[in-house]
Design goal:
- With 108 residues, the protein is an alpha+beta fold.
- The protein has a 3-stranded mixed sheet with strand order 1-2-3.
- It folds into 2 domains: 30 residues; 69 residues, Histidine-containing Protein, Chain: A, CATH 3.30.1340.30.
- It contains 3 helices and 3 strands, in the order H-H-E-E-H-E.
- A hairpin with a 2-residue loop joins strand 1 and strand 2.
- Pfam families: BON.
C-alpha cells in the first residue's frame, strides 16, 4: 500500500474514533432509562429528609419537587446561609443535574 493510501486510511480511522468518543460521551450524559414519577417522588422524599436534618434549614417552610434530573425548591429561609445550605445538600445527589432554588430570604 502506498503512503497516501495509508495516511488517508489512518485519518479516516482517527475521525471514526473521535466520532465514537463523542457518541460515548453523549450517552454517558443522558440516562438510558427515563426517570419515573415514582423515582422522582422517592428522590424528593429523601431530599426533604436530608434538608430536615440540616441545622441551618427549617424544612417545614420548604416545598421540594424533582423532575427530569432537576430539583425545585420553593419557600422561605431565614438567611443566605440557609439558602446556600439547601444547594449543598442537593449537590450530594448524583441523580440531580440542576438545582432551581427559588427560596425567598425572609428575615424574622
Amino acid at each position: 500500500m502506498n503512503k497516501k493510501k495509508t495516511n488517508a486510511k489512518n485519518k479516516a480511522l482517527d475521525t471514526d474514533q473521535e466520532t465514537a468518543n463523542e457518541l460515548i460521551a453523549e450517552v454517558k450524559k443522558e440516562p438510558l432509562i427515563p426517570t419515573s414519577s415514582k423515582n422522582n417522588e422517592e428522590i424528593a422524599s429523601k431530599l426533604e429528609y436530608d434538608l430536615s436534618r440540616n441545622p441551618h434549614i427549617v424544612s417545614s417552610l420548604l416545598k421540594v419537587s424533582v423532575a427530569d434530573g432537576n430539583a425545585y425548591v420553593k419557600g422561605k429561609v431565614h438567611s443566605l446561609n440557609s439558602k446556600q445550605s439547601i444547594d449543598e445538600v442537593i449537590k450530594g445527589y448524583p441523580e440531580i443535574k440542576n438545582i432551581v432554588n427559588e427560596t425567598i430570604i425572609a428575615l424574622s
